[in-house]
């Protein structure tokens, strides 16, 4: 019988203004049955109904956040109940920087759910503190600070579109520049500033880690080859353990000074090595910014 077939359950939560509405629309487009602003007390009933749908509902996404006021406080308890019943779930947590969230609220002219007698910034800080434990339990964290709606949709699609085909674990490899800050959603961060910097080679300065000349320069150094082999082995060792612990998406960040040369080249090489076993996407966060600075 199909009626007891397990469903894929995703709990969507995170900071107000971080893009949960857009995320749920993306999941709906991927065939998820979606419910927004659901009181946590109703999670068991929703999952029961979906499991008894005769296989018609295979994917469920439930949005729960501080809009639920006093009902939201029971989320931890309801998630423990799901675990006790053997029902697997994933938590997708969306966040963004304080400055970006304030700007989004100012532009939308909407009130933050926790604003009351606070300023928008104070409300955001209160919400961030309140959600700290939930963020720590999240399987997937997406930082939408620098994302457009298109970027968010692409990320959601790449993480969730192949779940029914057995591809349940995906990796995002991010290159970044330390001068612009570490990515907020990174699970693993590696600093490659110890490698020779092509920025100081006149004929390579205005190229990037996507160009052959920069790649050839970096890999003419023994330490680059040694690092790639050692770090690839470490990632290969770690991935099965993350999967065993129920993680479905991992963000690996590779950083150099400006996010233009070393981190870009190494992120591409590491991603290529992982693609034989995992679904991998690469995002060069600061490459556009480096090019703009070059023009200026």
From TrEMBL:
InterPro entries: P-loop_NTPase (IPR027417), RapZ-like (IPR005337), RapZ-like_N (IPR053930), RapZ_C (IPR053931)
Keyword set, alphabetical order: ATP-binding, GTP-binding, Nucleotide-binding
Binding site for ATP: 14-21
Signal peptide: none
The keyword Cell inner membrane is annotated on this UniProt entry: no
Protein name: GTPase
Originating species: Syntrophaceticus schinkii
Limits of the RapZ-like N-terminal domain: 7-160
Matches recorded under HAMAP family: RapZ_like
Positions with a binding annotation for GTP: 65-68
Keyword Nucleotide-binding: yes
Domain of life: Bacteria
Molecular functions (GO terms): ATP binding; GTP binding
Limits of the RapZ C-terminal domain: 170-287
């Amino acid at each position: 019988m199909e009626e007891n077939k397990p469903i894929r359950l995703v709990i969507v939560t995170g900071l107000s203004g971080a893009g949960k509405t857009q995320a749920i629309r993306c999941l709906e487009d991927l065939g998820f049955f979606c419910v927004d602003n659901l009181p946590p007390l109703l999670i068991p009933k929703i999952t029961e109904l979906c499991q008894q749908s005769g296989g018609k509902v295979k994917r469920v996404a439930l949005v729960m956040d501080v809009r639920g006021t006093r009902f939201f406080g029971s989320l931890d308890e309801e998630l423990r109940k799901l675990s006790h019943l053997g029902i697997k779930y994933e938590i997708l947590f969306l966040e963004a920087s304080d400055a970006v969230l304030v700007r989004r609220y100012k532009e939308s002219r909407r009130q933050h759910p926790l604003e009351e007698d606070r300023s928008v910034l104070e409300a955001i800080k209160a919400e961030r503190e309140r959600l700290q434990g939930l963020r720590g339990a999240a399987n997937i964290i997406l930082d939408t600070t620098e994302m457009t709606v298109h970027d968010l949709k692409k990320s959601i699609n790449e993480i969730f579109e192949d779940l029914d085909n057995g591809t349940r674990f995906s990796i995002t490899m991010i290159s970044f520049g330390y001068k612009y800050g570490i990515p907020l959603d990174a699970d693993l961060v590696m600093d490659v500033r110890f490698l020779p910097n092509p920025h100081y080679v006149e004929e390579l300065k205005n190229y990037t880690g996507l160009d052959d000349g920069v790649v050839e320069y970096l890999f003419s150094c023994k330490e680059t080859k040694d690092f790639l082999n050692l770090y690839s082995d470490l990632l290969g060792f770690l991935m099965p353990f993350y999967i065993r612990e129920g993680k479905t998406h991992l963000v690996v960040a590779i950083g150099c000074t400006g996010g233009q040369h070393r981190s870009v080249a190494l992120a591409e090489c590491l991603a290529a090595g992982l693609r034989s076993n995992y679904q991998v996407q690469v995002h060069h966060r600061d490459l556009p910014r480096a090019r703009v600075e070059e023009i200026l």
